[in-house]
Structure formats: C-alpha cells, structure tokens
Design brief:
Helix 4 packs antiparallel against helix 5. The chain has 534 residues and is mainly alpha-helical. The radius of gyration is 23 Å and the shape is globular. It folds into three domains: 189 residues, MFS general substrate transporter like domains (Growth Hormone, Chain: A), CATH 1.20.1250.20; 57 residues; 249 residues, Growth Hormone, Chain: A, CATH 1.20.1250.20.
C-alpha cells in the first residue's frame, strides 16, 4: 500500500505517475459521464418514474446545488486532511449515491440520492487536478494535465451517445451503475500505488475551514431553487411558502457575501473581485453557462418528446458541438495568449447567442432525418461560439490574479458555473412551465377534443412533452392525435421563448465581457500581499 506522503516538490516514478493518471481520469470520468449521459437519458427516466416537472428539475438541481455550495470547501478539505484521502472519500460517497440512484424506485428517492451525489462530487472533483498538480514535478505537470484533459474530452464526447444507447435499450439506470467499476479501479490505484499529498503548512497549524460560508450559500441556493421550482406548480404558485423560501434564499446569499467579506479565511475571497477582469469573467460565466444549461436540458426534451428522435439519435446530435469545442479551444486559447481574451470573450458569447436564436426559429420537423438541415446549423453555431469562449475565459480568470491565488480563482469560477446551472434551471423552469400550460390551454381548445380528454391533458401538463402519454387507453384515436399535436405545439412555443431568453443571456455576457474585461494580454498579477491560505 502507498503510505508515503508527497508534496508538490517531490518527484514520483513513471509507474506511479501512470497510476495517478489512471485514478484521476477514471474518477473524473464518473462525473463527466454522469452529467452528459444522464441529460440524454432524462426523458426515459421521467417516463419510467412518472416524474412531474418539479421532480424533473430537482433531479438535476439536487446534484448541482450541493456541488456548487461545497466544491470550494472540498478543495480546502483536501489541502488540510490529505488530497488522496478526501479524493477517495468523495469517490466512495459518489459511488454509493450512484448505486442508490440506479435502484431508486421513485423520483423522490432518486432526488435524495442525487443530493448525496452532489456532496460526493464536491469532495471528488477538486481532488483530481489537485493530485496531479501536487504529485507531478513542474517539468512533467503540463503533460500530465494534457493527458487528463484529452481523456476528459473523450468522455464528454462519448457520454451523450452512451446515455442514448442505454436509454433506448431500457437501461437508463446503467448511467449510474457504470460508475461502480470505474470507482473500484480508481480506488484500487489510489490505495495501492498513489502516495498521500498534503500541504506541509497544514501540519498542526491548519487554517479554519469556511463552513459558515458553505452553510450560508447552501441556504441561499436551496431557498431560491425551492421557491422557483415550487412556483412552477399552478396549484402552488407564488404562495406564502414560496415567497418565504425566496426571501430566505436572497437573505442567505446576501449573508454569504457579507460573511465572505469579513471572514478571516473565506472560501471565496471577495478581494479577488476588485479586478475588473476577474469580475467580468465570472459575470460572463454566470449568464453564459446558465443559458447553456437551460438550453441543453430543453433541447434534449424537444428532440425526444416532440421531434420524434430516439435517445441514441439525441445523443449523437450533441457530437458536432463537442467536436467543435474540442478542436477550437486550443487554437483560440493560443490566440488569447497572444492578443488578450477580451475580444474572444465578446465575440464568442455573441455567436452563442445567435445560435440560441436560430434554435428558437426551428419549428416542428420531420424527425432525425431532417437534423442536417434544421438543428445541425444551430448546433454548429453554438459550438463555434463556445469554442471561441472556453479557453480565453480560463486565460482571463487565471491572468487576473497572482500565481498564488490561481487555484482559488479557478475554484471560484468553477463554482460560479455550477451556481449558474442551479439558478437557470430553477428560474427558467418557472417560465417554461407557465408558457407550456398557457399554450396547451389554447391549443387544446382549438383542436375540438372532448372536454374530458382536454381536462386530463391540462391536469398532466406538469409532465411537459410527456403529457399525452398519461391519457387513458379508452381515449379515441382522434382525441389522442389532437392531444399529442397540442402538446407538441405548446412545447415548441415554450422552447422558442426559452431559446430567446438564453440568447439574451449570452448577449448580456458578451456585453459584460466587453465592458469589464481589460484589453491587452492577460498576465498573472505581481506577487502582492497574499490572501489568507485556503
């Protein structure tokens, strides 16, 4: 067993380096596959568990909420108690939660397990690159991170396809079960071949962890998520309970910011935001990645529940996006190093916004055969825009702070992207369900279906594109066809509004980048007075 402790200055053997890469790549793959593959399998999951829209949104946000709130603390725990030890704890918790997800007989149990997954992810995700950075010497670190990034790209590209194939074969639970062998191999490598890594300065003089900050941000995000998701139910709306939850959410986030400003060892040092570039890059991240998360969710539902794609076809539809992102990121990253990130962080999100707007113009198509002339151009435009944006965004974030603050800055930007997903899905979920119900009410009147069937359709509207599947077997073919058409048209109207909102958010992020990100090449700031160690 590997019990020796290593720090960032220690060298490791070639064999040990391979085991480190194996462990970190497999563990990271669990998170990447779980996210991208599950997105494609969600419609099948929803149908099997008969989940309504509120449960559907919580299946997603149940994971992202604890991940967003705790990911910075997770990195600090690794520095304090040992990166390998905390990394392994995260893998174990994530895998246990995955098993519960895979066997979950109800949507509510699945949501609870997803929350547990988010906690495990907050311990696991920061440890991957932290172990590589700590254990590999400086002259080999870049190659190691490059290898990790290459395999991460493969899982990002292959995840949706894997999820689609599993879902089409009635095996959507395999999205969770596939984590088991990956975790076991990773844990074996860690236990037997990877040394521990821990900051020497933490031995006996560890700085306090910012648990108060983690609690406050968790309360804030949970309050807002609960309030908006509950408000999407027409039987609840913005009642007193929902308003109270929203107030608690806002107060929680304000209290979090106040605490972070005054805390001696904050998990999110607000002093970093004195940099215009750092503030602009994170504002861009909040709006652009929020838009991307919401669009991705509803696009997948549109393909499978409205356009007639099977899950495998829906999985392949994201392949052009992933390939463009992969091939363009390095090129535009190099250009950002040469010319500065501002231009690319303005042009990239603006192009993404154009892509979202094009999606909003696409109506009902003839199915997957029409993908090449309908959705493909829009997918390519969004992929082009993100390919222009991603690497320069990293350049802006890392170049806006001193070298000793780079890890903290990267962690904050990572957390902001998760917060963006939580808020976008919760808030746009209200907009989507409100629009869908309004459209369904109008279209069911126009079709001339019986009052009984119309009432049944409206009662099941919270299932979005899966609404018509709940009609009783006694429904006539004429009423069933009318109901299915009403659902498709109402969903398309809703999807159009969501896409235009996402386009507006992308254009807003482009404007903020132009106004806030400083022109010129991004360079690490001078070694000024360091912030308290995290």
């Amino acid at each position: 067993m590997a019990t020796a402790q290593a720090n960032s200055s220690d060298g490791i053997s070639v064999a040990t380096g391979r085991w480190v890469l194996l462990a970190t790549i497999l563990a990271s793959s669990m998170a990447f596959i779980d996210g991208s593959a599950l997105n494609v399998a969600l419609p099948k999951l929803q149908a099997d568990l008969q989940a309504n829209a509120q449960q559907f949104f919580w299946i997603i946000n149940g994971y992202y909420l604890p991940l967003a709130a705790l990911i910075l603390v997770g990195g600090s725990l690794g520095d304090r108690f040992g990166r390998k030890r905390v990394f392994m704890a995260g893998i174990g918790l994530f895998t246990l939660a995955s098993v519960i997800c895979g066997f979950a007989p109800t949507a509510d149990l699945l949501i609870a397990a997803r929350v547990l997954q988010g906690v495990g992810g907050a311990l696991m995700i920061p440890g991957s690159l932290a172990l590589i950075s700590a254990l590999f010497p400086a002259d080999k670190r870049g190659m190691a991170i490059g290898t990790w990034s290459a395999f991460s790209t493969i899982t990002t590209v292959g995840g949706p396809i894997l999820g689609g194939v599993l879902a089409d074969n009635g095996l959507w639970r395999g999205v969770f079960f596939i984590n088991i062998p990956l975790a076991l191999i990773s844990l074996y490598a860690l236990v037997t071949h990877v040394p521990e890594s821990q900051e020497e300065s933490n031995a006996g003089t560890a700085k306090p962890l910012d648990f108060i900050g983690a609690i406050l941000v968790s309360i804030g995000l949970a309050g807002l998520s609960y309030g908006f998701i509950q408000a999407s139910d027409p039987l609840i709306g913005f009642n007193q309970e929902v308003i109270l939850a929203l107030i608690i959410g806002v107060v929680g986030l304000i209290a979090f910011l106040v605490w972070e400003w005054r805390a001696p060892y904050p998990m999110m040092p607000l002093k970093l935001f004195k940099s215009r570039t750092f503030s602009g890059a994170n504002a861009l991240t909040l709006f652009l990645y929020g838009a991307l998360s919401a669009w991705s969710l509803f696009f997948t539902l549109n393909l499978q529940q409205v356009q007639g794609y099977n899950a495998t076809q829906a999985g392949f539809s994201s392949l052009p996006f992933a390939l463009m992102l992969t091939f363009l990121s390095r090129r535009f990253g190099s250009m950002a190093d040469r010319y500065g990130p501002r231009l690319f962080l303005t042009v990239g999100p603006a192009v993404v916004g154009v892509g979202f707007a094009v999606f909003g113009l696409i109506g009902l198509t003839s199915g997957a055969d029409a993908f090449w002339t309908t959705f493909l151009p829009a997918v390519l435009i969004v992929g082009l825009g993100m390919g222009i944006t991603v690497a320069p965004l990293t350049t802006a974030v890392m170049g806006a702070v001193s070298q000793q603050q780079a890890g903290t800055a990267s962690g904050i930007n990572n957390a902001v992207s998760r917060v963006a997903s939580v808020l976008a899905i919760a808030i746009l979920g209200v907009v989507a369900l409100t629009m869908f119900r309004g459209g369904l009410d109008s279209y069911t009147l126009e079709t001339g279906m019986s009052d009984t069937v119309r009432s049944e359709v409206l009662a099941n509207a919270s299932r979005l594109g899966d609404t018509a599947s709940e009609l009783p077997d006694t429904t006539s073919e004429q009423d069933l066809a009318a109901a299915q058409q009403a659902v498709r048209l109402a969903f398309l109207d809703m999807f159009r509004v969501v896409c235009f909102i996402c386009a507006g958010l992308a254009w807003l992020s482009a404007l903020l980048a132009w106004l806030l990100v400083e022109p010129g090449r991004a360079q690490a700031q001078p070694q000024d007075a360091p912030l308290p160690a995290r």
